[in-house]
Every structure is written in C-alpha cells, then in structure tokens.
Amino acid sequence: MSMEKTLVLVKPDAIQRGLIGEIVSRFEKKGLKLVGMKMMTLDEAILREHYAHLADKPFFGSLSKFMMKNPVIAMCWEGLECVNAVRLLCGITKARSAEAGSIRGDLAMSVSCNVVHASDSVENAGKEVKRFFKDGEIFDYKKTEFEHVYAEDEM
Ligand code: DAT
Ligand code: MG
C-alpha cells in the first residue's frame, strides 16, 4: 500500500465540450489530492514520447493531430494506490463500451475522442508526471480531508 501520483490529461474533445469541471470533480469527489494542474498545448515531440507504444499503429497520425487540436489540461493526482483507482474511474479506451459510472462510460462515445488520459502503471505514472510537469509545478501540501478519506493505518 503506498501513496502514488498519476498523470491525467483532459483531452481536446473534453475542453471543447465544456467537461473540464465535470472531469476534475470526479477525481475530487473520489477523495484524491490535486498536486499539479496546468493548461498546455502539446507538440509532436511530447506526443511521440507519450504515445511511443502506438508509434507504428495506423491511427498514430490522426491521434497526434487530435491531441494538438487545442490545449489540454494536465493534472497530477495523488492518493493511495491511485494509479489503478484513476484508471478505473476513467474506464476502458473504447468509450462506448466503457462501464457506466466511469468518466468515459458516462461522457464519451468514441475510441479516440475519449475525453481523458490516465497513466496505466506506477512505472509509467512516474515517467509521465515528469514528462508533463517541471520541478516546482508539483505541490506538496497537507490535505486535511485525507483524515476522513482514509483509515489511520492506511495513511
Ligand atoms: P488508453 O488511453 O485507454 O490508455 P491506449 O494507451 O491504448 O489507451 O491508447 C492511447 C489513445 O490512443 C487512446 O486513448 C485513444 C487512441 N487509440 C487507441 N486505440 C485506438 C484505435 N484502435 N483507434 C483509434 N484511436 C485509438
Ligand atoms: Mg494508455
């Protein structure tokens, strides 16, 4: 059991559809701690790194183009084993098959326009937080709510 940090991106489609607040609110209500947040425009270099596992897929070009259409919101969330918890909150890639109640399941219908990105492992979360945030853009503070979100032996 350990406190983890994970990267979430609110994707261009969600920005256009006015879903920033709704998406942030899902993570807040879950009891996670926001430790970094900024709007940024992605470029080809960062997307080549971020989607390196998809570089040889036929949809890589359109995926990159989609992610550069307008700015995204990058967020870093912290919580106990939160990499997995955040993936569950987001739902599976193909949004129209994602579980109802999840962000993608409730808010999206597409495979590519699926409103959020979330790190898929603890190892990748570490790399992705570093990729999107500089030192000084991740904040360390006490969230007193944690006393109510967790049992004493979990903190
Ligand atoms: P996830 O975002 O659920 O981690 P992934 O890492 O496999 O999924 O892919 C990253 C993004 O690439 C995904 O959110 C949307 C796009 N994508 C994945 N598979 C796709 C496909 N078959 N067709 C079009 N876009 C796809
Ligand atoms: Mg992924």
Kindly describe this structure.
The protein is an alpha+beta fold and 155 residues long. Helix content is 39%, strand content 18%. The chain has a single domain, classed as Alpha-Beta Plaits. The protein contains eight helices and four strands; from the N terminus they run E-H-H-E-H-H-E-H-H-E-H-H. It starts with a strand and ends in a 6-residue tail after the last helix. The model has no long low-confidence stretch (mean pLDDT 98). Bound molecules: 2'-deoxyadenosine-5'-diphosphate and magnesium ion (MG). Residues 54, 59, 63, 93, 111-112, 114, 117, 120 line the site of 2'-deoxyadenosine-5'-diphosphate (DAT). 2'-deoxyadenosine-5'-diphosphate is lined by residues 54, 59, 63, 93, 111-112, 114, 117, 120.
Distinctive features:
single chain; binds magnesium ion; 18% strand; binds 2'-deoxyadenosine-5'-diphosphate; Alpha-Beta Plaits
What is the CATH architecture descriptor?
2-Layer Sandwich
Global Rg: 15 Å
CATH overall fold name: Alpha-Beta Plaits
- Which cofactor or ligand species appear? 2'-deoxyadenosine-5'-diphosphate, magnesium ion
Strand content: 15-25%
Per DSSP E runs of 2 or more residues, the count of β-strands stands at 4
- Structurally, the number of domains stands at 1
Question: What's the overall geometry?
Answer: globular
What's the end-to-end separation, in Å? Answer: 9 Å
pLDDT below 50 for ≥5 consecutive residues: which ranges? none
Summed over residues and divided by their number, the pLDDT gives a mean of 98
Let me know the largest β-sheet: 4 strands, antiparallel
Structural class: alpha+beta
CATH structural class:
Alpha Beta
Q: CATH superfamily name?
A: Nucleoside diphosphate kinase-like domain
- Describe the strand arrangement of the main beta sheet, using strand numbers: 2-3-1-4
